[in-house]
Each structure stands twice: as C-alpha cells, then as structure tokens.
Amino acid sequence: MLPAYVVHCMEGRARLRHPALGEVAVRAAAQNALGKEQDVVEVRPGAESLLLLLQPGVNVADICKRLEASVPMLVRPQAEVAAERRAAARARRCDKWHGNNAGFAAPRKAVGGQGDRRNVLGISRRKLEVRAMMGAAGVCLAAGLSGPKPVHILAGLVWAVMAGRHVWVRRKAV
Questions:
Q1: Helix/strand/coil for 3
Q2: DSSP codes, 88-153
Q3: Where are the domains of the chain?
C-alpha cells in the first residue's frame, strides 16, 4: 500500500506531495536520497512536491520506505507539518511587523497589558484616533451650543481634519 504523500502513481511516474517538502533542506535531502535509487531516472522538484520519473515495473512503495528511512519528516501527518509551517510563517510575519528583522523574538515588556507596541495606554491606535475624533466633535457641539464661536470653529476644523484623515486611511474599508 502506498503512503498518503503519494498523490499520483502510474507506470514510469509518481508524484510525492507533503508540506515538509516545501522546506528547502527536507526537499534537498529527499532529492539526494531518491537520486541514489537505481530505479529512479529523474527527480523534478515542485511546490511542496517531487515528481519521480521511474524505470518501468518499479515498486513505488519500496522506494517510499527507503525514502522515509532517510527523511523521517515524511512519516509525520501532513496536517501536523502544515500547521507547524503556518505557525512558523506567522511568527516570521509578526517579527517583521513588530520591527524585529533579526529573525528572533526578543522579550518585550507589555504596554498597557496588551504586549503590543502599537497600543497606547492599553488602547489601540485606531480606537484612540476614533475617541479623539469624537471628543473633538463633542467640544465643537458644546462650544456651538454655549456660545464661544472661535472655540466652535477651531474644534470643528480639528474634527474635519481628523475625519478626513480617518476616511483617507480607511478608504478601502468604506
């Protein structure tokens, strides 16, 4: 019986697909191991896969057993390996997003209890922006009702600038 990572097998060809083959080191090890097989004519790499061109009448299951001996990562469940690769990619993106381009996450102090440098006093910048905009609108309304016209005009201008910036930054979401 063929392993789960053999997705296609016919006379002279077999396609092996496993998320572990997306890693350069694992794919190189698999290519080296398959290159030493007598019955494998050629190994062509693909995206998380290998295409094997084989001699006629070859038992692909035996080749896979010998491959698993040299590349034990292929024995692990595909979903588990794929989840680990997604988590590693997510961690790299988070490190890049947080300005840590060195590839390792240095421990940070929690700002506002959130552990995120983008927060100010525990409030995200977007919420802080919206609250400031609503505060400027409230001051404009209160000044307009109570009488000091210059304060009303100034608060209205501040609100208009903040609202314009808010709409411009989030124009795709509108």
A1: coil
A2: HHHHHHHHHHTT-TTSS----PPSTTTT-TTEETTEEHHHHHHHHHHHHHHHHHHHHHHS-HHHHH
A3: 6-76, 123-169
Q: Tens digit of pLDDT for each residue in 56-89?
A: 989 999 999 999 999 998 999 989 989 998 998 8
Name residue, tokens 């989840």.
Answer: 83
Nearest to 115 by CA among 90, 98, 136: 98
CATH architecture of 6-76: 2-Layer Sandwich (3.30)
CB 81, CB 20: distance < 8 Å? yes
Model pLDDT for residues 103-140, shown as the tens digit of each residue: 454 444 444 444 556 677 778 888 888 899 999 999 99
Query: Is the pTM of the predicted complex or chain greater than 0.70?
Result: no
Integer Cα distance of 64 and 16 in angstroms: 9
- Alpha-carbon distance 173 to 168, whole Å? 10
Q: What is the DSSP letter of 174?
A: -
